[in-house]
Amino acid sequence: MTEQAPQLVESDVEPEDARRVAEQAFGDRQVYRQKCVAEQRRGARMTWWRESMSGLFLDVRYALRGLRKAPGFALGVVLTLGIGIGANTVIFTVIDGTILKPVNFPNPEQL
Q1: Cα(24)–Cα(32) distance, rounded to whole angstroms?
Q2: pTM of model > 0.85
Q3: Could you tell me what percent of the chain has a pLDDT over 90?
Q4: Pick from 69, 88, 103: which residue ends a domain?
Q5: Domain co-membership, 24 together with 57
Q6: What span, in angstroms and rounded, lies between the C-alpha atoms of 83 and 76?
Q7: Host H or E run for residue 20
Q8: Cα–Cα distance for residue pair 16/22, rounded to 1 Å
């Protein structure tokens, strides 16, 4: 747009008319602006995603390297997690079956 307007002014076209013709040749600025903003947002999201996943990947590699260097510690971690998850499952199952679910009686309103 800025390159075409001076050429039109040099060819004896009024500056306002030259600007209008150059804007028409360029197209709708609002649509172009929206496309630029959308592309900028997409680029920012991709940058954030790439940096986040890169950091996560490096953290996982570091943790696995540490566990490989100390297999006894790794076994202790796995056993502790297994026992903790199993204990939580058992406790929730018992509480769910005894407290949270009502007991079925033939005529509960007579109790």
Answers
A1: 13
A2: no
A3: 26
A4: 69
A5: yes
A6: 10
A7: helix 15-26
A8: 10
